[in-house]
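Here is my example:
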Amino acid sequence: MKMHYKFAIWIVALLALVLALASLVIHGPHVDYSAIAASALSGSLLTLLVLRFTMYPRLQQLRSIANRHLVEERRGVEPSLICCDELDNLITSFRDMSEQVEQRESELIESYEFSTTIFNSINDAVMVLDPHERTIQTVNPAFLRIHKLSLSETIGKVCREVIQCRSLDGESDFRRCLGGLAISTGEPCRGERREVANGNEIFCDVCSSPVLNRHGEVTHLIRVARNITEAKVQEQKIHHLAYHDHLTGLPNRMLFEDRLRQAVLHHRREGSTGLLAFVDLDRFKDVNDSHGHAIGDEVLKATARRLSACVRASDTVARMGGDEFIVLLHSVPDRNRAVVLGQQLLECIREPVVVNGVKIEISASIGLCFFPLPQQDVDNLLVYADRAMYAVKERGRDGVYLA
């Protein structure tokens, strides 16, 4: 009996060694030794079970036949044909079982290699996490490539230490964590996230899916992230073009009107007043006719930079079209302060613009209008500011008028 157990132990050890070597060949230099140990242990236990329930009874039968054969030899009796037939059948049975085990082992290795090939071929970043400690158990090559990380910087590390993940609105708490939602609900959760890993920031479409056992317990968390950075950059460019002037980069009329509506609501709530300054460059057509539209564009861009530098960050400068600009100024308490601000804007514009060695003198007519006033909407405010600007034109240009 002891010999049989020794035989079983040697078979288990040999199969464990084979499984370990197979894992080394499959994984290559980036080997997870804990995974190898687990694989070897599980294979050994499986082998032990096979020996216990299939081969061990056969070995017992073989032992019985051998004992009978020995007894007959001691008695000087020729071994019976039945004994020899039983031995032949037993050997054939062992051979069949050995072939079945080899076939099953080959199928398991092929299945593992097939799954590994699929996992490594996915172009999205795949990460497998422990659901409790949130440690990274394995990642695919695309994960390392997209996040510009090495295997040693990821395996066994806590996820949040490797990747700083935020939603697009900047939230990063546990309630907005897709992994946390997936674990608590037991359902896949998806959303767009901004991720920073190793100083590299990208936008990702992320799906976190829990893996459940037969008892409904979460055993693993699979996180798949698709890099959508290029699409987001294009989306931001389109959004910028829709709400900004292409020449100067200033907000256009659509964006300005939206900000003006918000400003009217704010000042009504606070009981304060703001100021609109409608700016029109004087005789700008002469600049285009004398120096060309390329020089005229440079003058417009210089004017946009000067107006932006002349106001606070909370104020807004927009280009309404052509040679017209408008400025939204917050918290202007009285008429005197309004006129002073209007004069400051005018002085900024009066400075000569030098383009390609050509010195160009410009001036502007600036109409001012307070807001909010009773029964005023955005369109009415723009009309009042425009009328104030034309009042300056009628008075000879190059000045400021407060309606």
About this structure: DSSP finds twelve helices and 13 strands in the chain. Residues 2-121 form one domain.
